[in-house]
Amino acid sequence: MDYGMSVRLDRPFGQAAEQVRAALKEQGFGVLTEIDVQATMREKLGEQMEPYLILGACNPPLAHRALGVDRRIGLLLPCNVVVRGDGEQTVVEALEPRIMVTVTGQAELDPVAQEAASRLEAALDSLTSLTA
């Protein structure tokens, strides 16, 4: 199983990042954390790189269900979504939630992971129908 799902968008990074936040919200995810990797690498290491954000997306009902199965699942939460520049395009990648089942070996997490994956896939799919 691939550990991520992705889409490539023909639009500027800033516009894509805003659209990703909106698409996640539409699927019931809030962005709990936002890490600007580009700024961090520049400030801490003096290194230059493409625009790169890591969004920590959480769907509270799904997180609650997962925690009800396994309290340690918080080690794998929230769902990370990466938005990164790639030339004139922007790549959006999300961690495949079904990896939780593989990592933990807890089959009881499968329905939660399936729903999270469906919602993330719907969010990514919605981005491809938007115009630049």
TrEMBL record:
**What region holds the DUF302 domain?**
35-97
Per the record, the domain of life is Bacteria
The record's section on CDD domains has: DUF302 (cd14797)
Alphabetized InterPro entries for the sequence: DUF302, TT1751-like_sf, UCP021774
**Which Pfam families does the UniProt entry name for this protein?**
DUF302 (PF03625)
Q: What is this protein called?
A: DUF302 domain-containing protein
The species this protein belongs to is Actinocrinis puniceicyclus
